[in-house]
Design goal:
Layout (H helix, E strand, L loop, with lengths): L1 E9 L2 E6 L2 E7 L4 H10 L4 E6 H6 L5 H11 L2 E5 L5 H8 L5 E4 L1 H5 L1 H11 L4 E8 L2 E4 L4 E2 L4 H10 L4 E6 L11 H10 L4 E5 L5 H10 L3 E4 L1 H4 L14
Helix pairs in contact: 1-3, 6-7
Length: 239
């Protein structure tokens, strides 16, 4: 299992939202590039970056900043937020970003998403699904989709999807602990996917729970930013 620190960007700053609510935003006063370098120096190899401005508007906003993060940190960066055009995906993948996350596009246009996966590879295109209970949420979690997550995942896997970033919105940014049942249910239904768990990490015990479940990776933002999770505690998972 690998650990991915998360950097959420809004107005060029590192922020965290509570349950995806844009009105419940906390600024950390930290330069995103400097924070990424800190994580690299602490021993991390991977980084999850979300362009919240893009997630809200549906158009990439912080492209140059995100490319700087990838190039200057030397981390394997995956990025999400507002990505739907092939040229934007290609821009990131050709400029130092390791992988991109397809969220709203994957929900609304799974067929088109499958073509992008076939072109760029299942290891470079992640499917990012955000769930609030049984509901799939899109457009920065502001809109409820009509599709069932199980049916959508089956279709996307058939189209070549290998890696899924699954966020439990009800716990995201809350430091309330992860829902073991949430991720267990996903893995029981789709045991062969590479699953990145996101939402609710509050400390080391949550990391241990997810490791025992067999998730491929864990994304954690607020717990690291606020010192609830110490980098020195994570040595066995850093690679």
């Amino acid at each position: 299992m690998i650990i991915l620190p998360a950097i959420d960007i809004m107005d060029g700053e590192v922020v965290r939202l509570e349950k995806g609510n844009f009105s419940r935003r906390k600024n950390y006063g930290t330069d995103p590039v400097s924070l990424a370098k800190f994580y690299k120096n602490a021993g991390f190899s991977y980084l999850h970056v979300v362009d919240l401005d893009a997630a809200k508007t549906g158009q990439p906003v912080n492209q140059s900043l995100i490319v700087d993060i990838a190039r200057e940190s030397g981390l394997f960066v995956d990025v999400g937020g507002g990505l739907k055009e092939e040229e934007d995906i290609a821009f990131y993948l050709e400029n130092g970003v390791f992988a991109v996350n397809m969220g709203s596009l994957a929900v609304k246009e799974p067929g088109r998403t499958a073509k992008l996966i076939q072109k760029f590879g299942g290891d470079r295109i992640y499917v990012s699904l955000d769930l609030l209970g049984e509901d799939v949420r899109i457009h920065g979690w502001q809109e409820k989709a009509t599709v069932k997550w199980q049916d959508l995942m089956k279709k996307l896997i058939k189209g070549g999807a290998e890696t899924f970033v699954m966020t439990d919105i009800s716990r995201d940014g809350m430091l309330s602990g992860v829902s073991e049942d949430f991720y267990k249910r996903i893995l029981n239904t789709f045991p062969d996917i590479r699953l990145f768990a996101s939402g609710g990490v509050s400390g080391l015990e949550d990391i241990r729970v997810l490791d025992r479940l067999g998730v491929y990776g864990v994304i954690t933002g607020k717990a690291l930013l606020e010192g609830k999770l110490k980098t020195e505690e994570l040595a066995e998972w850093l690679c």
